[in-house]
Amino acid sequence: MRLLIALIGGWSILMAQVPSSGGLPLYGYRVVNVYPHDASAFTQGLQYLDGYFYEGTGLNGRSSIRKVTLETGKVLQQRTVPGEFFGEGITVWKNDLFELTWQSRDFRAEEALHVPR
């Protein structure tokens, strides 16, 4: 109960700081296309580069890095991360894609996929 009261109290402090003059911009969105994706992939990192998605997935025993076609969702390349690691963020550096394993505080450089440029 104390946590709930603290959260409500904190929220009221934040709301009091929002100007009521309507001066804040309001943004919207519209869906322009929908693409297929592996629903079992626990996406942790995603980068779009040269017409492909590069994706890092998480969960111990199920983490991987992948190169995926946007239009079909087909996995073109995949490298499995060792089962004891939980894959997190990804980045492309030069011609390689790397994934960080945050929970183990490890950088798995040997888990790179080659990214032709």
Give an overview of the whole structure.
13% of the residues lie in helices and 38% in strands. The protein is built from one helix and seven strands. The strands form two sheets. Strands 1-2-3-4 form a four-stranded antiparallel sheet, with no helix packed on it. A hairpin with a 6-residue loop joins strand 2 and strand 3.
What does the secondary structure layout of this molecule look like, with pairings?
Layout: H1 2-16, E1 43-49, E2 52-57, E3 64-69, E4 75-80, E5 90-93, E6 96-101, E7 106-114
Antiparallel strand pairs: 1-2, 2-3, 3-4, 5-6, 6-7
Keywords:
117 residues, disordered N terminus, mainly beta, globular, 7 strands, 4-stranded antiparallel beta sheet, 13% helix, Thrombin, subunit H, 3-stranded antiparallel beta sheet
Mean pLDDT figure: 76
CATH class of the domain at 38-117, named Mainly Beta
Termini Cα gap:
55 Å
Describe the largest sheet: 4 strands, antiparallel
In brief:
With 117 residues, this protein is mainly beta. It has one helix and seven strands; from the N terminus they run αβββββββ.
